């Protein structure tokens, strides 16, 4: 079993409370699990999330990835520090039709004192990988 990496504690309810009236709530992103070394979330794919061809917009996948990576980074640094995203990339592998939902799981790639790298896999309802994205965050003192 993995050793927990979190330096700050947060409950799903606390995370949901902070997400109110933000892009997170606007997009319907819901953090569903805080594991020992990962965050998991769900998001519907409806009219808010699609491009004109009625499939998940790649930019929305990136927003989901940035949400999880930034949140995970924040939880993985000690009190007195915060994180800011400095680079993100995404590979879009399979389309997600409107009406389906996605599940995303974010895990650390690198946990340094000044930078962290987090990878998110976004999967369709059938389990097929739709997108893989990596975010680099700078760790800064408050």
From TrEMBL:
Database matches in CDD domains: PaaI_thioesterase
Domain Thioesterase: 55-131
Entries under Pfam families matching the protein: 4HBT
GO molecular function: 1,4-dihydroxy-2-naphthoyl-CoA thioesterase activity
InterPro entries registered for this protein in UniProt: HotDog_dom_sf (IPR029069), PAAI_dom (IPR003736), Thioestr_dom (IPR006683)
Top-level taxon of origin: Bacteria
Any one Gene Ontology cellular component term annotated for this protein: cytosol
Keywords noted in UniProt: Hydrolase
The family this protein is said to belong to: Belongs to the thioesterase PaaI family.
Name listed for the protein in its UniProt record: Hotdog fold thioesterase
């Amino acid at each position: 079993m993995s050793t927990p990496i979190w330096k700050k504690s947060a409950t799903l309810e606390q995370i949901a409370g902070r997400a109110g009236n933000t892009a997170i709530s606007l997009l319907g992103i819901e953090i569903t699990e805080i594991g020992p070394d990962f965050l998991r979330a769900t998001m519907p794919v409806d009219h808010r999330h699609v491009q004109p061809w009625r499939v998940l917009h790649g930019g929305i996948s990136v927003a989901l990835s940035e949400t999880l990576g930034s949140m995970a980074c924040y939880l993985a640094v000690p009190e007195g520090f915060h994180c800011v995203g400095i680079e993100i990339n995404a590979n879009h592998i399979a389309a997600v039709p409107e009406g389906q939902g996605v599940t995303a799981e974010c895990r650390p790639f690198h946990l340094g004192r000044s930078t962290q790298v987090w990878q998110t896999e976004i999967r369709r309802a059938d389990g097929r990988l739709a997108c893989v994205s990596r975010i680099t965050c700078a760790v800064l003192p408050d």
